[in-house]
Give the backbone structure.
Amino acid sequence: MKTLKRYQYERYAVLCNLAYQPTLRQTQYGFSPRGQRVISNRFGQPMIRVLWHVDKEEAIVVIKGSHNLYDWLLNLALWQKDCRDYQLPYAIHAGYAYLLRQESSPTRNQDTLGISVIDKLFETLRYLVAIGKRITFTGHSSGGALGCVLADKLERESPKSIKRVVTFGQPAIGGYAFHRHYCLSHKTYRICCDLDIVTFLPPLPLLYMHVGKMLWLYNGKIHENTPTWRRLALSLFSWIVRPFSYHLMSKYIRNKDFFDER
């Protein structure tokens, strides 16, 4: 597996952050004036943005995490639903499966009612692949989990069409069958930051498993593929001792900037 470069990390992180805003002016971030396709959820809120530049090979799919109360409640649908209707040999988290199958509200005059989020997305992706684009999927939280499934589906449909998958703070989305059949582990980077509890969810280790290479940003370092039990133990230990860390002189020294220079 190739190393994720710093500029790539920053680019995907910025786009995932911008995805939570109502609008995204793609030309400010190196994409073409007509290089954005917005896929909305059932409420008409932007859920997925596809971004590209006519002169560049990479197109980027940015998927937003849970952004309303209803979506947060869907996180509690911990049973699994099979994806055979999308030619995938495994089941995934039922709540996230619903997010993909929900009706996408029209965002353009030529859009029609009754088309699901996943079907509307793939209309755009098939066009981009046909003109020679390679697709990167990135997303935060549940958006990252959905990105893994969507990238896997596209790779099976159009081999070698995926450039990479980069997720931030994602929960697991499938079990052993998903872990076994997922075909992009060598191109998937799962970024976990410090004590992010969502990265341990759902709390059902025999039913849910992660895929790809984990990069844990912890204590000023990048730790690769740290076992979940060790990461959880270190996180719990950190939570316990954190109040005492504020007593250290190093903490007082770092806060010197609160005072005037005189």
Observations:
- The beta strands are 36-40, 46-51, 58-63, 80-82, 91-93, 134-140, 162-168, 188-193, 213-218, 221-224.
- The first strand starts at residue 36 and ends at 40.
